[in-house]
Amino acid sequence: MSQPQDVMMEDRKQLLDSIRGQRVLIPNLRPLFSSWGNQINPNYQKLIPVVNQKLESLVQNEKRLKKLKTADFALFASSWWPTAQFNELQIVTFLAIWLFLWDDELDEPTGVHSDNFQAAQAYRKETLEFIRRSLGIGLETTSPIANPIFKSFSNAAGQLLTVYNRSKKLLVMGSLEHSLISTTILGGLRVIEGYVRFAVDTGKRICGLDHDTLPTASDPITDSFRVIGNQLRVSYTIEQRQMVFEELKYYIHTTQTEQEIKLSGRIPSVKEYWKARMGTSAVGVCEAVVEYAHKIRASRDVTHDPLMKALCDETNIIVVIANDMLSLKKEIALGCIDSLVPLYCAQLGSIQAAIDAAYTDLLASVDRFESAAEELLSLGSTSTMSKAELQIFVRGCRECWSLHREIWFRIREPGKRKLLPPAMNIYESRSTRERTRMENETRG
Predict the structure, then answer these.
(1) Could you give the CA distance from residue 104 to residue 413 in angstroms, rounded to a whole number?
(2) How is the chain split among helix, strand and coil, in percent rounded to 5?
(3) Quick check: 208 and 253 in contact, CB under 8 A?
């Protein structure tokens, strides 16, 4: 039998009160990632006005807009994808913006659907359908011809051949004046033009490339995925687009689980937290565009390749744990206990024990990541990626935790745990020297 909501809310308050005012030591995480790179894309400065323009088109509240600009999405994307060319860098940045703004509608206190689960479900449903159609999923042909656009040119090619043969025959026979021949050819080409236009339009519809057939979404944030979908349709194979769709579907589904827990008022278990967090972190979505950022068209098989799956899962776990540890001070100040360390505290009875447990988990995850990466690069993958492409993908996973900043800054209000662009150092991890100093002060 479940507890009344007021009792569960009181449990949350008690946990929060037990953590507030406590002094904890956060291990220095820098050495863990010292070899993981800290490059910034040379297009960073060029990207800033593009990001600001995108935010201005989607956010009307001036205060919120200012905070989002300060968060520096351009730096976030330039750190995660330091070698991407400018066009690809724009699109992955737009994806990051879309993820954060879309979720705000569900999870922000001022979000349109934050307190209305049924409305949120309708929002999720519309979004998934819009994403599916944007990516051209379910619209592809079953024709044995690899590219449906080529197939749609068959009639045009036949007409062109007919006109060519007829013109050639007339020239050989010499039965028509030069002007008449020209007129015949030009007339034939006008016919061909109609067939070509029809063929292109048909092929685009078959491939899901017909932008005009996708209606405007009811929400401008949802609709802003359109430009992302357009670019991925052009650059990605159907298998790669399907992978992106599945990751976004998982992300959206786990926001449902997260919202249900939040609205119930209960404290989730660590197991429940991880079940939702592996999706709501959106790390899987960002991993799904690593190939796009590096112009790789080979697809990877996460479902049937245990090494690739392990690599992606450990990347997610590392980012989540490190983020939750380093943002603890900010989370508690905002009254939020829905992250890993407070939930460990509820289980272990001590906030320092919770920090230590999270750090132990982080060390183990880094080791598992390195083992999976080493084995994947030495043995290869069941995917169609070459060894060079696998190396790029592994590097892309490492770059998701970029150490050119002390932490990932998160501009969210209470309850927000998604990774946001680094912009300021809000909670320094303690160096060994400071740990010693604080321990001496405690003993004194």
Answers:
(1) 10
(2) 70, 0, 30
(3) no
- Local confidence pLDDT in tens for the 444 residues of the chain: 556 666 677 888 999 999 998 999 988 887 887 766 678 899 999 999 999 999 999 999 999 999 999 989 998 899 888 999 999 999 999 999 999 999 888 876 666 777 789 999 999 999 999 999 999 998 654 333 445 554 455 455 555 555 555 554 554 444 444 455 555 555 555 555 555 555 555 555 555 455 447 889 989 999 999 999 999 999 999 999 999 999 999 999 999 999 999 888 899 999 999 999 999 999 999 999 999 999 998 777 766 788 999 999 999 999 999 989 988 988 898 888 989 999 999 999 999 999 999 999 999 999 999 999 999 998 876 667 888 999 999 998 888 765 434 334 433 333 343 333 333 222 333 333 343 443 444 333
How many residues are there in the chain? Answer: 444
Amino acid in position 40: I
Q: In the numeric block, which tokens belong to residue 44?
A: 């960073």
Q: What is the DSSP letter of 417?
A: -
| Distance from chain centroid for Cα 355 | 28
Residue 400 burial by CB count (10 A; 0-12/13-18/19+): exposed, middle or buried?
buried
The set of residues, in sequence order, having a beta carbon less than 8 Å from that of 115 and lying 6+ positions away, is: 263
pTM, two decimals, is: 0.75
For residues 59 and 101, the answer to whether their CB atoms sit within 8 Å is yes
Q: How far apart are CA 108 and CA 114, in angstroms?
A: 6
